[in-house]
Amino acid sequence: MSEAHPSADGLQSRRRRLEGLGTAELVELFGRLDSAERAVQFRLLQKDRAVAVFEDLDPRVQREVVDSLREEATTELFAALDPDDRAPLLDELPAGVAARLLEDLSPDERAQTMALLGYPEDSAGRRMSPQVLTLDEDTTVASALDRVRHAPESVETIYVLPVTGPRRRVHGVVSLRRLLVSDPEARVADLMVPAATVRATDSSEDAANVVRDGGYVAVPVVDTEDRLLGVLTVDDAMRVLEAADDEDAARVGGTEPLRRPYLSAPVLSVVRSRIVWLFVLILAATLTVGVQSYFEAELDAVVALALFIPLLIGTGGNAGSQAATTIVRSMAVGDVRTADVWRVLGRELLTGALLGFSLAAVGIAPAAWVAGWDIAAVLALTVVGVCSLATTVGACIPLVARRIGIDPAIVSAPFISTFVDTTGLVLYFSIAKLILGI
């Protein structure tokens, strides 16, 4: 029996195996399978588990699952999702399929989903849940708890409840724990605390940082007049930050993020994620070749200089990448802001100089043994200069990029490689001309 048409015993065996796995384990499993096998195993899940797993899959994997299901099953699965889980999937689906799925929703569900789609793709409005339970200021604790007990299952969270006044303006929040331990006759207004809110038009990453940094279970999402639109929960915030970290890590390494599990990504997608930066780095390498051609006479006079070119380029590139990675990460968690540029540059200049002196101290004797003390001195001074330049530039690029509205991770790797390779060689040959008199 072929894998595409497994036997009844084989299906039962797979079903029992799937039943023994948790939701997180199933999500990981489906991320590792090819589309055909994933379709077979997804159909073996019970409805409730299928919905729970589907919600946590990457949107591009979700699309492949949708493509593999019958129209009725797709409609049923789509309707079971929360509005904030539908929006990323709709971005991946063809327009015709998306329109059909929206048409099959109830008017209320369709309106909520369309409202989220009206916000920019990377905004907090796209990530929020509009299904939120609110309390009035004058509500008593007893009445509030009664509302919680009778809240529909579609409500995103009951652990933190926004307290609203006229026109749904947010006046504060109250936790379920506070309600449970308070006098049943107390007013909610006397128990609420000021709310940390985010705007629907804020970037999703900035909003997620508010949730993480404040240790909140959820934060209200409001419009420009502080009217409640929904809530951003901690689980959605963590997904946003995880995706942002993956994106930064990929771009610092000179690739585009795959936005899906590696093993489920088509090989052509992996190629596309890497090829652009390789072209950029090849163009950058031509500048290095140009510098070497310009100093060809010096290389002919002292051939030993060529021995250390790969070492200098590698050292400078690594030092610059270390600095850039540190600053990009520090910016992501809010430790460093663009206003800190001069403090950062001063620290990295000193750091680079100390790194350069340390490497020069260790390497000068071996270099002298290989090529003589004159070239060893050239190499030592160049290493100090290259490390100082590389760390300073590596720290400066992300800050400048953020200032002009570019993702720091996008420009760091290719620009550092280009600048450090080129300026490092110019510095190397200039010092050589000065010390060796060539």
Could you characterize what this model shows?
It is a single chain. With 438 residues, the chain is mainly alpha-helical. The protein is built from 20 helices and six strands. The strands form two sheets. It has a three-stranded mixed sheet. Strands 4-5-6 form a three-stranded mixed sheet.
Question: What secondary-structure arrangement, pairings included, does this model have?
Answer:
Elements: H1 8-19, H2 23-32, H3 35-42, H4 47-56, H5 59-68, H6 71-80, H7 83-92, H8 95-103, H9 107-117, H10 124-127, E1 135-136, H11 141-149, E2 160-164, E3 170-175, H12 176-180, E4 198-199, H13 204-214, E5 218-222, E6 228-233, H14 234-252, H15 267-294, H16 296-301, H17 309-332, H18 341-371, H19 373-403, H20 408-436
Parallel strand pairs: 1-2, 4-5
Antiparallel strand pairs: 2-3, 5-6
Helix pairs in contact: 2-4, 3-5, 5-7, 7-9, 13-14, 14-17, 14-20, 15-20, 17-19, 17-20, 18-19, 19-20
Task: Describe what is shown at a glance.
It is found in: Cell membrane; Membrane. With 438 residues, this protein is mainly alpha-helical.
Q: Provide the gyration radius in Å.
A: 29 Å
Give the integer mean of the pLDDT values: 81
Low-confidence stretches: none
Q: Could you give me the name of the CATH homologous superfamily of the largest domain?
A: SLC41 divalent cation transporters, integral membrane domain
The outline comes out as elongated
Structural class: mainly alpha
Write down the secondary-structure element order. HHHHHHHHHHEHEEHEHEEHHHHHHH
- Gap from first CA to last CA: 77 Å
Helix run count:
20
CATH class label of the largest domain: Mainly Alpha
